[in-house]
Amino acid sequence: VVQAKSQNSFTSLRGAVSTNKKICVAEGSADEDYVRATYPRYSNVLSFLGGPEQRAAKLRDGGCDVVTLAKFEYDFLRQVGSVNPDCYMETIGEPLQNVDAGWMVLNDVKDSCTSLIRDVLGLWTLQMELDGTLRAIVKKGLTPVERCAIETMSAGHSSASQLKLENMLGILTVHAAGVFTALVFHFLQGAPKAVRKGIQKSRTLGAIRRVSPGRRGSHQSDEVSAGKVAAWVDTQHS
Q1: CA-based angle 72:75:76, to the nearest 5?
Q2: What is the value of pTM for the model shown?
Q3: Which of 13, 21, 50, 98 could lock onto 65 through a cystine, CB 3.0 to 4.6 A?
Q4: Which domain holds residue 62?
């Protein structure tokens, strides 16, 4: 999202909508769908059939307060003197959406060699990037003169992506509830084992206490019983 630097009344697309700014998008583009779906009741959205240079020119002439451009379009147009004579263009807020390129090759992945062509082009492009050829072509063809300084992210832009503590209370609450539930299940699962171990220990100690005092008497009774058996055997023999 791009605006003129002289407009300091808003720092995001939502701010532009709240201040009733004219937002220019390409007709039939993903940007138009996004803006109209996000702000369905906002009527100050202008769509144009022209390319990015025409939208940037309308921003320069005051026909638009905000325009949407692709990242590579903005990087190129901000160095064009006829479109950005005083380096007045700047981005506001965070990128609207990230669109992955190359997904169309999946439509015929089973029927033709589009995937092979994609991989070959990707290999060649990577080789050109590694040996510096691609960078030289871009520098020569797209940005012949660095008219405007490289744009840096301002403090207002960086703060827009930072979450405050109240924004994270929901996440923290969910994590705390999960930890508490896990601890409860852990103690509930370990408690029966501890109780069983305690009962077994108490039974063992009780058995030891009952057996120990009578150990000597038991030995004597065993001797007496053995003597009776021996006497009975002698009687039978006699």
Answers
A1: 90
A2: 0.48
A3: 21
A4: 2-97
